[in-house]
Structure formats: C-alpha cells, structure tokens
Amino acid sequence: MEGIEFPHNDALVVTLRVANSMVKRVMIDGGSSADMLFWSTFKRMKLDEKKIQPNPTPIYTFEGTKVQLIEDVTLPVIVVGKTLFVTFVVVDAPSAYNAIMGRNWTHRMDGEASTRCQVMRCISEYGRTTIDIKGDQVEAIRCYSIATNLKAATSQHSEDL
Q1: Record's InterPro entries (predicted)?
Q2: Is residue 44 classed exposed, middle or buried when 0-12, 13-18 and 19+ CB atoms within 10 A define those classes?
Q3: What CATH number has the domain bearing residue 134?
Q4: What pairs with residue 83 in β-bridges?
Q5: Which site from 11, 89, 90, 135 is most exposed, i.e. has the minimal number of CB atoms within 10 Å?
Q6: Nearest to 35 by CA among 43, 47, 27, 46
Q7: Could you tell me if 88 and 53 are in contact, meaning their C-beta atoms sit under 8 angstroms apart?
C-alpha cells in the first residue's frame, strides 16, 4: 500500500467537499451513529445560519459526557460526482476534527472504510465503478496529537478548513 507508513493504528481522516468548501480533517467513524459538523468549522465555511434548524436533543460521548447540540443542518457532500444530502448535527465542542462522518453516511455511499489501508471504497452513482476516498495519514497523526491534549487543540486548531 503505497504511501502508508506501517505499522500504524491511525484513524481514517479525509478531505471532503461539503457544500462549497473543501473540508480537511474529516474523520470517517464507523462507530458513530451521527454525522457531525463542528460549530467552528460551520463558521469558517461562511454558510448561511438560516439553514440551521434547532435541535434540543443532547448527544453523549462514549464515556457518557453530555454534549449539548446547537442545531442540525443539511448540506450536500460531493465525492467524485456522487452527491448526498447529509443532515449534520452541529456541535459546539473542541475537536481535532472539522467533521465526523458516521456509519449512516458510509452506508448511504455504499462504502467500506479501511483504517488499515487508509481508504474508503465506494460504489459509483450508477454502480459501474468504484470510487476511492484516500485517507491522509499525516493529518490523522496530527489530529491524534491534537486530540490527546484538547486544551492545546483550541489554540492549535488552525484556520484552514
């Protein structure tokens, strides 16, 4: 697997077109039931706040911490000619990631994500070919480093999308 450093235990971190922005540091997380967009990312994308809908339902982290949601927003996610409208949970919390794509999106993309191979392989819109969404191992390592110290994450979180 060319370009991948072994051995590794890195998350699958990709860049996706969300609405009109190329959003870096998007984690593909098969363990997440929600697709999340972080509020700081939403603001940097300069999206119309009128698109967001109130969501009073909290979510809980894997350790049971309650995170209050801001709202939901439905945005197009475009991957090599395949467009899906995704309802993101907008979360105001520090994160090393700009967005997290959960298993619902992965399944709707007809995709299989491999952290080992650092790729998500999807069936094209008409089912004739496959689309590979390649991971960025360098960004994955950077995100892991930031996530291990979330206090540093808020100051290190760069202005790039």
Answers
A1: Peptidase_aspartic_dom_sf
A2: middle
A3: 2.40.70.10
A4: 78
A5: 90
A6: 27
A7: no
Query: Pick the residue with more confidence: 3 or 124?
Result: 124
Whether the bond between 7 and the residue before it is cis, its omega within 30 degrees of 0, is: yes
Tokens 């997380």 — which residue? 29
Q: What is the mean pLDDT of the chain?
A: 87
Residue 128 falls inside a structural domain: yes
Cβ neighbour number for residue 69 with a 10 Å cutoff? 19
Q: How far apart (Å, rounded) are the C-alpha atoms in residues 93 and 74?
A: 19
Tokens 């997290």: give the residue.
Answer: 100
46: in domain: yes
Pick from 8, 15, 7, 11: nearest CA to 146: 11
Q: Are 57 and 68 in contact (CB under 8 A)?
A: no
Global pTM value? 0.85
Which of 39, 15, 57, 6 lies closest to 143 in space, CA to CA? 15
pLDDT tens track for 18-67:
999 999 999 999 888 889 999 999 999 999 988 899 887 777 776 778 77
- Rounding to the nearest 10 degrees, give the CA dihedral for residues 56, 101, 21, 123: -140
Backbone angles phi, psi at 75, to 5 degrees: -135, 150
Domain that holds residue 111: 12-154
Report the alpha-carbon distance of residue 17 to residue 23 in Å, rounded.
Answer: 6
